[in-house]
Design brief:
single chain, alpha/beta, Glutaredoxin, 5-stranded mixed beta sheet, two-stranded antiparallel ribbon, 5 helices
Amino acid sequence: MLKPRQPVPALDVPLVGGGRWVLAEQRPERFSVVVFYRGVHCQMCKDHITELDALVDKFAEVGATSVLAVSGDDEGRAARAVEEWGLGRVPVGYGLSPRSMREWGLYISKAIKEGQPNEFSEPGLFVIRPDGTLYAVVQTSFPFLRPHLDEVLDTLRWVGEHDYPARGEV
């Protein structure tokens, strides 16, 4: 289990449209926010990541100047998500391996319907300090019960204003 105030695993993924997103190379003002999503097959992911895309500037305003949406989808499926979901602001990573999913402590599911990959991660939102340590995490074992991104923004704003420490480290 990942614990706040401890280093998170490495994350280095290709991006739709070219380039790579490497966590160790991020230089956020206050936080990096990494949102793991199930894949293009997931309607709830579409809603969540579309909302994230619309809020990239708001996240930057609260010091989360490095944001990523990432899944285990291959390049073609991830490109479909970007196109079909109308994403244009949030970087979208792809090719997350089952090993990396496990390192991050994500729940992994097997396909139960046509159109789903054989295995894919369930959602998780990780807030990471510039030093690469975990600040906070919200994750779920199925497509539902995701954090409301406006609440995440309000929380990160408050945390920044009050220099609130990471909790859950014991």
